[in-house]
Design brief:
The protein has 126 residues and is mainly α. The chain has 5 helices and 3 strands. A hairpin with a 5-residue loop joins strand 2 and strand 3.
Length: 126
């Protein structure tokens, strides 16, 4: 079941923003859709190692309810469902870009490991 959207009161803008991207997978879903454009559910799941089907479904529903992700159902047999970012989702990704840059610096500074999967090459190695 999806959580009810909060409408404040918020302490500050960061509180309101974190309310939308809270959860381990939401930021990664936004990144995956930004990197690849349109993705089907199975493609998203493969691109996010460790995410369960339940969590991915829940977060996609919440992101859709928040107007960040568009869900397109094609009337085919079997049905084809595709996910993409809305304009609002693209603006959120742009706002998260400095946070991502900070994270890359941290990875380098701490000499942290990266998850090895097909898209890990997009992050610079420490």
């Amino acid at each position: 079941m999806t959580k009810a959207p909060r409408n404040g009161p918020y302490i500050c803008g960061i509180d309101a923003a974190l309310d939308v991207v809270s959860g381990k997978w939401k930021g990664l879903i936004l990144w995956e859709l930004d990197e690849h454009g349109v993705r089907r559910f199975a493609e998203l799941r493969r691109g996010l190692p460790g995410v369960s089907e339940k969590m991915l479904t829940q977060h996609l529903r919440e992101l859709e309810a928040d107007g960040l992700v568009h869900r397109q159902v094609h009337a085919e047999v079997p049905p084809r469902v595709e996910y993409s970012l809305t304009e609002h989702g693209r603006t959120l990704n742009a706002a998260l870009a400095p946070l991502g840059a900070w994270g890359v610096d941290r990875i380098r500074r701490e000499r942290s490991d990266l998850v090895e999967h097909r898209d890990a090459a997009t992050l610079p190695r420490p």
